[in-house]
Design a protein that fits this description.
Elements lengths: L2 E4 L6 E4 L2 E6 L3 E7 L6 E3 L9 E2 L1 E4 L5 E3 L1 H4 L1 H4 L4 E3 L9 H4 L9 E2 L10 E3 L2 E3 L1 H20 L5 E6 L5 H13 L3 E7 H8 L10 E8 L4 E9 L2 E10 L4 H16 L3 H6 L1 H18 L4 E6 L2 E6 H26 L8 E5 L6 H11 L12 H13 L16 E5 L3 E6 L7 E7 L9 E7 L9 E8 L12 E7 L5 E7 L5 E6 L7 H13 L1 H31 L5 H20 L2 H33 L3
Parallel strand pairs: 3-13, 13-14, 15-20
Antiparallel strand pairs: 1-2, 3-4, 4-5, 4-6, 7-8, 7-9, 10-11, 11-12, 15-16, 16-17, 18-19, 21-22, 21-24, 23-26, 24-25, 26-27, 27-28
Helix pairs in contact: 4-5, 6-12, 7-9, 7-10, 10-11, 14-15, 14-16, 15-16
Bound molecules: adenosine-5'-diphosphate and magnesium ion.
Amino acid sequence: MAKIGINIATGSLQQEEMIVGIDLGTTNSLVAIIHPESRKPLALKEHNSSSLVPSVVHFGEHNVVTVGEEARKFLITDPANTIFSAKRLMGKSYNDIRQNADFFTYKVIDDNTESLVKVQVGDRFYSPIELSSFILKELKARAEHILKTPVTKAVITVPAYFNDAQRQATRDAGKLAGLDVLRIVNEPTAASLAYGLGLDPAQEKTIAVYDLGGGTFDISILKISNGIFEVLSTNGDTYLGGDDFDRAIVRQWMKEHGITDETIRTNKELAQALRLKAEAAKKHLSNHEVFIDSIDKFHLQITVAEFNKVTAELVNRTIECCRAAMKDAGLEVNQIDEVVMVGGSTRVPLVKKMVSAFFGREVHDELNPDEVVAMGAAVQADILSGNNKDFLLLDITPLSLGIETMGGLMDVLIPRNSKIPTRVGRQYTTQKDGQSGMRIAVYQGERDLVKDNRKLAEFNLTGIPAMPAGLPKVEVSFLINADGILVVKAKEIRSGVETSIEVKPQYGLTDEEVEKMLLDSITHAKEDIATRALVEARTEARQLIDTTLNFIEKNREFLTEQEITETMGAIEGLEKLILSGNKDQVQGAVEALNNLSRPYAERLMDQAISMAMKGKKI
Ligand code: ADP
Ligand code: MG
């Protein structure tokens, strides 16, 4: 399955490694790849088994750790040592989860409420990062077993609302599991990618991604333009999901058979059996009219109509979240172009029906809803691995790189989307006579003024020999190597003095920040153009004032008193406009000053020429 490559340095054959996509879910996790032949996303699974790995970790005797389906069996029989929903604890302190502490049947440490939580199992303590890494290790091992090749690189998805700490925790979990996490992708973005939405850069769409999983509900409104995903709004309920549907069925059956809460609390086996049967019933009802089964003496039956009745309230709550998300995004439902269904619970017909009714359109449910996020992560992984030639994401600079020039303007040396490695050089000169140093400030971003961009580095080129302004030639070169490291060098050509520095342009920048910087440049394009024009007019004006003052200084004796007063007045007026005028006013005043000085400048020129002529002997 894997591609074969040739290592040019050693001449040896080597397997090119596949980058996998991972959905690290609250309830279930899975791995997907792009099939090398069919080029279609594919969730990995062993023969006859599910692609889903329950996100459950059990710690048994003698430190035996089991993950997935095996571990799930211990949820009721050994709750203190069986960790589920570790994702809910990622990047959280005890204070963050205090309100929902009852939810966790295992021990979440509460003595240091400010710092990141730990979970206690027996006499051992685990961080959510470690717990997640157990799940990721299991996924990695599975993928390696199925693909029969080492897997060390992955794209992992997270909810759109995850903050930096939670994203970093997810990255760290990957690292701990022996995975190089090439990118963290938002789950709704991944789901859209799986449906091919956003792959065409010319496409502009507004998408609603409705994700109802096992214990969580998320609605995200996304906007795609120029191949960039922007999250317009998110909403949801972190304690609402398929598990609540199961509980609703259990309560219905308890009512029918007069089973009390007390019985459920004390008879753990019955409780577990009912919950498992309820989940089976729910799944069955997704494509049947009635479910019939039994546990001991209890006859268990439920129809779709009854199921809809006991769950309608839950589905309604998700619709209210959708309404709130639309309001936050400032959109009407008719402005949504696509609705994507994600999460196992969207298989419930009532859910599909109500979501479709709310958005007034058919929803996307062609792909497996519990595999679609992993599939989209695989699409992203494939793009990163360079297999998808239309999208060379790793091999281009996502943002422009340049230096600050006069007036705080951004002078771009390497425009965004340039292929790397690349090298670019440009010459600059000094502004003042005898200037011995030059400050080189390196920026990244798309805005015209450096103050709106991201500063990467700054250094001084010193030791420029004394020369009149404009004479030194300082060559500034930008070199980005294949690893994305930028080397900036400044060299004064005449004297040979040089300085250089190295920066990592993407260091500390999340994908979302890059996206935001790009979007900002689009939003501010108009005002940026205006600002640039004004800054350029001001710079031109200052230069004209300098040369004019210089000229007057040197030629004072040849000028009339009136010429000098008029010119000084014009200069004063221009100086005021530099501070407060608009571009047209500054340009107008520049022209006026030029018109004023041109006649006497020409006159002096003519005099100089005729004097030179007179001096010559014919
Ligand atoms: P998460 O994203 O939270 O990890 P999933 O997307 O895997 O969760 O969804 C898990 C939920 O989907 C569980 O509650 C499960 O019972 C439910 N589910 C799976 N298949 C079906 C089905 N056929 N009908 C209804 N619900 C289902
Ligand atoms: Mg999910």
